[in-house]
Amino acid sequence: MKSTFVFLILSFSSIFNLLASDEADQYYYQNAVFRDEIKSVQLYREGNELSNPVFELGSDVRLLLKFDDLAEDVKNYSYTIIHCDASWNESYIQQSEYLSGFPDNPITDYAMSFNTTIKFVNYQLTIPNDDCSLKYSGNYALVVFEGNDRKNLVLIQRFYVVEPKVRIEGLVKKATFDPFNGENQEVDFKIINEQLRLLNPQEDIKVVLTQNRRWDNAVLGLKPRFIQNNVLIYDYDKENVFPGGNEFRYFDIRTKRYNGENVENIKFIRPYFHATILPDGIRNNKKFMPYKEMNGNFVIESLDRVTDTDTECDYMFVHFYLPMQSQLVGCSVNVFGALTGWNANKSNEMKWNYESAGYELSLLLKQGYYNYQYVYVPDGAKKADSVNLEGSFFLTENEYEIFAYYRDPSSRYDRLVGFVTLNSNVK
Known about the structure:
Blueprint: E1 19-20, E2 27-28, E3 32-33, E4 38-45, E5 54-56, E6 63-69, E7 77-84, H1 95-98, E8 99-101, E9 104-106, E10 109-112, E11 121-127, E12 132-134, E13 138-146, E14 153-162, E15 166-174, E16 184-193, H2 201-204, E17 205-211, E18 219-220, E19 226-228, E20 231-234, E21 241-243, E22 249-252, E23 263-269, E24 272-277, E25 298-300, H3 309-312, E26 315-323, E27 331-336, E28 351-353, E29 358-366, E30 368-378, H4 387-390, E31 399-406, E32 415-423
Parallel strand pairs: 5-14, 24-26
Antiparallel strand pairs: 1-2, 3-14, 4-6, 6-11, 7-9, 7-13, 8-12, 10-11, 13-14, 15-16, 16-20, 16-21, 17-18, 17-31, 19-20, 22-30, 23-24, 25-30, 26-29, 27-30, 28-29, 31-32
């Protein structure tokens, strides 16, 4: 592994496709990075790097987008915002209906890297802003492109605007019927409606349930099992069950001066820094060990003497190694988490090394503190499976997000009328 990646110049970034729907001019929008040189993409509530990009309509909360372009020249980047339905297809409404201001705007906040081995330009954008604000609730796709050509895509990031018309209450517990002896978590919840006029509660409210902000294993299409007056009850035994999984692995590359947690060594091999993660092991046959982590997220930080982490945190090649008795057939093994955009694809697929008898991968990452896990993805599957390599326990701490959407009979778009985050450790 050590010699395989030493001379890499650039690692692949997360590249995902926009999937065309049945309508010729409609697209399914998902988090995506379309260029290898774009790194460290983050979108969060300003002031909280670990927050979900969700805010209430009309509030003073702003979202902050950050990303780096590994280039020494400034690009002419612009952005637009697209309203989407509950399934992330573009809504059948004009931008002028849901946006105040201009539909396309330049990104003018940028700065060059300083004293780093890899040169880059850091770009930032806050939304809403003086040029563009939002009038409707719902799902939104923030689309960054180069020049004046929307087809010249750079990246896409999802975010959410909620107008709290319903209240969501819920609880995460051990699955009621668990054939796997304590591996699964069940999410029971209810939606309390005191404002919306629901003609058909079974159809008027659409619910999406996600685990740790992942969308590949999201639960869609849940209908209320019971309706009591103005309360919709989603108390299922199977449909709302997730594998508990295991606590995320982690490593600390906040400094180049010494080895952080779970880092075997940091070396400067001219002209770049390389960090080798301690060899990992499969955890599906080990006992559960609870510890505090970030549910798969990462933060950009430095323990070195820097003034601005955005421009002075350096990049380094991070080398992962997962030993295994033999190569797995009919699947891929991927490094998974926010560091890879919560997707498993060619950009984070590990390669089998016959000599070292294990899977290896090198990712170019900015200084910071990272969570990750190894996932098993059968050929052709759209959902990443962590259970086979990481194990699964109902005691694992996870966050679950519940989104409630409503479309008025006279409306042409899905409103996001309720949102809540539940933690499996909070009873």
